[in-house]
Amino acid sequence: MQTLFWILIFIGTFIGMEGMAWTTHKYVMHGFLWSLHSDHHHKKHKSWWERNDFFFVFYASISIGCFLLWKNEIAWYALPIGLGILAYGITYFFVHDIFIHQRFKVFKNANNRYAKGLRRAHKMHHKHLGKQDGECFGMLLVPFKYFKN
Q: pLDDT for 18-36, tens place per residue?
């Protein structure tokens, strides 16, 4: 029975991270921490690293904190939460940084309907270069209007 709880907590955390990422992006990244996120919209730098990457460090530290809570037997449910955050972070890295922004030059020729829709939706977000009016959506729950043939 405990395994079932762990699986449900893991899945719930992974799905919940989609909402957390959307909320953080809309109200934090395009809000009071725009100074960290702006270099993601304005490529005025030659570095592979962006200030925007500090958001990854923030979520990674929460995941690591969950692992420590579990390891020190403070909260048994912290392990599936930490793993759910980690799994979402890995998925986000592959979809957003590798697939969409091509920070590593792989998956260039992915041409299915989902891939095209995801890239189209992300281009609409990056069409707005300023702090305001950036259309926000989740990584996995992209609006259907972007899935044209």
A: 889 888 888 888 888 888 8
